[in-house]
Amino acid sequence: MITKEETQELVRTHGKSPTDTGSAEVQIAIFSRRISELTEHLKSHVRDHSTRRGLLKLVGKRRQLLNYLMDRDIDRYRAVIEQLGIRK
């Protein structure tokens, strides 16, 4: 679970302003943090299928946002990928 302070920190680092919660960069950063936490949870709780389903849904949502960003502005897409270290 992401705390309110962690979310505000992600908004400050990835947003255009301190109240910018709707931009694609901020949403991708929040989804990435949740995905990493769920991945760690699933390493120790292998049979937790409902969490696995939620993780897959989050990965799909993040992928859709990344595709949107790639279509609209490739420079912003590359910057987000670099900052978050999504692609290896």
What does this structure look like?
The chain is an all-alpha fold. The chain contains 4 helices and no strands. Helix 3 packs antiparallel against helix 4 (74-84). The longest helix has 24 residues, at 49-72. The model has no long low-confidence stretch (mean pLDDT 95).
Mean pLDDT: 95
Shape category = globular
CATH homologous superfamily annotation: S15/NS1, RNA-binding
How many independent structural domains?
1
Q: What is the CATH architecture assignment?
A: Orthogonal Bundle
Strand content: under 5%
What distance separates the N and C termini? 25 Å
The helix/strand class is mainly alpha
- The helix count comes to 4
CATH topology: Helix Hairpins
The topology string of helices and strands comes to HHHH
Radius of gyration: 14 Å
Write the layout of secondary structure elements.
Layout: H1 4-14, H2 24-44, H3 49-72, H4 74-84
Helix pairs in contact: 1-2, 2-3, 2-4, 3-4
Entry keywords:
Helix Hairpins; 88 residues; single chain; mainly alpha
Give a summary of the structure in a few sentences.
By secondary structure, this protein is an all-alpha fold. It contains four helices and no strands. The model has no long low-confidence stretch (mean pLDDT 95).
